[in-house]
Amino acid sequence: MYQKLDLPEKWQWFQQARYGMFIHWGPYAAIGRGEQVLFRDHMDPVQYEKAACLWNPREFDAKRLARIAREAGMKYACLTTRHHDGYCLWDSDLTDYTSMKQAPGRDFVREYVDAFRAEGLRIGLYYSWLDWRVPAFFDGPEKNPEGFKAMKAYIHGQIEELLTRYGQIDHFFFDGSWPRTYEELGSAELVAQMRRWQPGILINNRLGKSETKSVNEEDVGLSADHGDFGTPELNVTAEKRLWEACHVSTWRLWGYAPGEQVKPSEQLLDLLCECAEKGGNLLMNVAPDGDGNIPPAVEKNLIEVGQWLKVNGEAVYGTDNGDITEFLTHGRQTARGNTLYLIIRFWEGKETLRVNDLLSRVQRVTLLSNGMELPFEQTESDLVIHGLPAEKPSPLFPVIRVECAEPLKTNEWGQYRNWCGDPERIARWAAQRGETVMVGR
Ligand code: GLC
Fold it and tell me: What is the pTM (predicted TM-score) of this model?
């Protein structure tokens, strides 16, 4: 069951935001087989590097992308400043393998930060610890003490550049620490430094410890060694602290691939509602192509979700709870304070809707799609809503707001769903028809 988090003021924006844009983009976009093509296709690293240096995405327009993110209803974003291929999208002094020193002659991180900030979005940066070009990272400090020391200084130096040159950075997404450990990477010292440079920053959990395990498994709670927020990837697993599930808007790859199928807007929205329902955020990926353009089908679907959020956003932004009663047969539920939101995935076209297991006294019920108040009746544990239109009132999931006069409460059916709780309650319920396997008593 969801537990309300006691968050410091500086991090409250994150829970309020609920929805951000992940941007995976680099020279790999021009190859068009995802962000890991260098490794997965075992490419010749010299050839890859040559092509990367010539990559020149003239059409990349950060302002346009920032507008799309805002219209999509996203409240923050996170750009891959350097992915596993090691190519840097900013003007790093520590290497010449950057978009500034190679063909584009542009600092894409600067363009991104300025454009997204101007649209009122919070700023996140993704950075890969590992760099497939550098053997010392994989040899490690035992085998190659000098090389690894230099690599570590390079990494720490680049993070310093990113956190001291671009104004306020709100969110930092480390990735790819394997095979190095928290101690080898110097994560503790680096994180302490990062907080000095950016006192409000939220740092993710991929710091060299338990990257793949959820915090609940280890029960480490809010230990700083595990970062400030969890990052379930391509799944939505709630943790007992801040978390952000990251997903692709396509089927599998994070970087651009022209053969990738695009998730329909219902599925994008459903992922967002699932995260909100379980008390977390969704970081939804977009992959601009080799010229810097976001695929039109992805843009269209994101904007459709944004239009839904304009009408129904209160069911997502700042919700701090959800899944109060058993509602799976209709859709999803989110909540804030004494208000419950019913997100109807399966519109039946019936005049009534029954909500089981709600013990709180209901004051008002409203269909957000048209703002109409709906009549209702309430018994001890059931709410029956009337007056629903036969036609689905919005192209994506309609939302019903249920305002209660007291905090949201449920009964044992709401508290314990399938396969948990006291089986005795199921026996009592089954006994209504008798004891026998035969039909009739
Ligand atoms: C993974 C992948 C990477 C992707 C990331 C997103 O760890 O290595 O390609 O950027 O997850 O969370």
Answer: 0.96
